[in-house]
Amino acid sequence: MPPPTERALTAPHTLQYTYKRSLGKVLSAFFTGLRDKKILGVRRKDGSVLVPPKEYDPDTAESLSEMVEVGPGGVVRSWTWVARPREKQPLQHPFAYALILLDGAATPLLHAVDAGSEAKMKTGMRVRARWAPQTEGAIRDIACFEPEEKK
Amino acid sequence: MSEPVEILKTPVKLDYTYSAGQSASRFLRAMAEGKLIGQRCPVDGRVYFPTRGSCPQHGALMRPEPVELSDRGTVVTFSINRVPSENIKLDLPYAPVQVLLDGADTILMHVLGECPIDQVHMGMRVQAVWKPKSEWTTSIGNIKYFKPSGEPDAPFDSYKEHI
Q1: Residue ranges of domains in chain B
Q2: Which residues in chain A have Cβ-Cβ distances shorter than 8 Å to B29?
Q3: Domain range for A73
């Protein structure tokens, strides 16, 4: 081929899949709860509560169905700082992704923490859910978590 | 608002900028002039359409001279689509067809028009139906669809290597 004389053409190319999933009873209750500004877990036989809830006990495979409200406060178990958020991430300014053990839960939930700066993030800090202005039954009904006010 | 949430939308969207590269850019610029440009492999002489920089079979750079192809060809295979998609603005059902353009050795994926869906078949001779010239861009979409040309069917042996 002769040396290029014209610039290569470029074009935007968007790959999009419009997936929908049917939730089943347990996750339906979880997302309905979010729409109603409640965070629900599911109780295991030993009394501990899985958040987010699962349909079956991960250890015993027993069917689970008893929904329990947890949070909206909790403790940061671990976190990572996102200095340059991307377009689809939950916040458009720097934030932390954190594993949050909600009050009453035995397992942590992954979500964003809006702490303002990395220096304000600490494992063990208390945070509380901030709800989106409009809720629709999706994980983003929790806009993010934010540090709990000291009383 | 009291109905339970039973369905979750989980769309996936990936935004790319696609670069066509030199060879496909030449093909696309020719499309804007209503020409179908292929290129020939220097090893076995097969004509690739659309053009690529190098032969996928031999890795050799394609011969530089463009090979202009006819906008007529043969349906080598097809399917019938009855499933709606938000991305495809065609009336259902329609037939995606693999067309072997006269003079080409690779097949082109396009759609069939002006043909009852139960009449599409292998070996059917077709010709391109172009958009009005004022709407041509650097796109294969300048061809709206292929329609039956009315010629007799191509014999199986003439396209069996290209299915």
Answers
A1: 19-69, 71-158
A2: 6, 9
A3: 24-147
Residue B1 in this model has a pLDDT that exceeds 90:
no
Report the complex ipTM. Answer: 0.77
Q: Which residues in chain A touch residue B64, judged by CB atoms under 8 angstroms apart? A: 1-2
- Residue labelled with tokens 């409009």: A134
Q: How far apart are CA A27 and CA A149, in angstroms?
A: 31
pLDDT in tens, B106-132: 999 999 999 999 999 999 999 999 999
Interface probe, candidates B3, B8, B13, B48, chain A, greatest A C-beta count within 10 A: B8
Contact A19, B26 (CB under 8 A): no
Domain contains A95: yes
Identity (one letter) of the amino acid at B129?
Answer: V
Neighbouring residues of A90: CB distance < 8 A, sequence distance ≥ 6: A111, A112, A140, A143, A144
Asked if residue A12 belongs to a domain, the reply is no
- B87 interface with A at CB cutoff 8 Å: yes
Q: Give the chain A residue whose CA is nearest to the CA of B42.
A: A1
**Percent with pLDDT over 90 in chain B:** 79
Q: Tokens 């999009």 belong to which residue?
A: A16
Q: How far apart (Å, rounded) are the C-alpha atoms in residues B9 and A117?
A: 32
Residue found by looking up tokens 């509380």 in the block: A128
pTM over 0.80: no
Give the count of domains, chain A: 1
Q: Do B16 and A8 touch (CB under 8 A)?
A: no
Q: Which residues of chain A have pLDDT under 50?
A: none
Radius of gyration of the CA atoms of chain B, in A = 19
